[in-house]
Design a protein that fits this description.
The chain has one helix and eleven strands; from the N terminus they run E-H-E-E-E-E-E-E-E-E-E-E. By secondary structure, it is mainly β. A hairpin with a 3-residue loop joins strand 3 (about 55-60) and strand 4 (about 65-70). The longest helix has 18 residues, at about 25-40. The model is unreliable at about 10-55 (pLDDT under 50).
Length: about 180
């Protein structure tokens, strides 16, 4: 599990990325690094966290965002990663989630992503296909926490996503307001 801690209220808006910016792992990595730097400079109120990696699926959280990468997954399989956001403040904060990705063509576009927020499904559909707009996730209570689970699955009828092939990647930014 990965943890993030809120530190102060702020609002930010990340631009949508076009599908052409997501072609090729090298270009994708560069875009994510630029995006991470932009988000870091924007003042979104999150603190650094660790990296949670596993067989073909990794979720990394930094001060202001989370990135999800799928490099391999067998047909019929699924894998999950969790991030917990903690609010150390003495007041409640409103939390929003923004995805920056284009629907992936990895695994023939068959990858499915489910995002759960405190055991409530907030998105289920094509990996990278969530609307790239700020989506309200509700309140994080004072000195409380909120958990997000990202589950990636591949139907049994799909071709497996193999290591060394085109990865599926998406970036998520957290926005909070008092």
């Amino acid at each position: 599990m990965t943890s993030i801690q809120l530190s102060r209220p702020a609002q930010a808006h990340l631009p949508s990325l076009s599908g052409s910016q997501w072609r090729g792992a090298t270009v994708l990595l560069a875009v994510l690094l630029v995006l991470a730097g932009t988000v870091w400079l924007s003042g979104i109120p999150l603190r650094a966290a660790d990296v949670d990696s596993g067989a073909g699926l990794s979720l990394s959280a930094s001060e202001r965002g989370t990135s999800l990468s799928v490099t391999s997954l067998d047909a019929g399989a699924s894998a999950s990663r969790t991030v917990t956001i903690r609010n150390p403040e003495s007041t409640d904060v409103r939390l929003a989630l923004v995805e920056n990705a284009a629907p992936t063509t990895a695994a023939g576009g068959a990858l499915v992503l489910r995002i759960e927020h405190d055991d409530r499904t907030v998105y289920e559909g094509p990996f990278g296909g969530m609307a790239d707009v700020s989506q309200d996730m509700g309140w994080v209570p004072a000195r409380g926490e909120s958990t997000f689970t990202f589950t990636v699955s591949l139907p049994e009828t799909a071709d497996p996503l193999s290591a060394g092939g085109q990865p599926a990647m998406a970036a998520y930014a957290w926005e909070s307001t008092p």
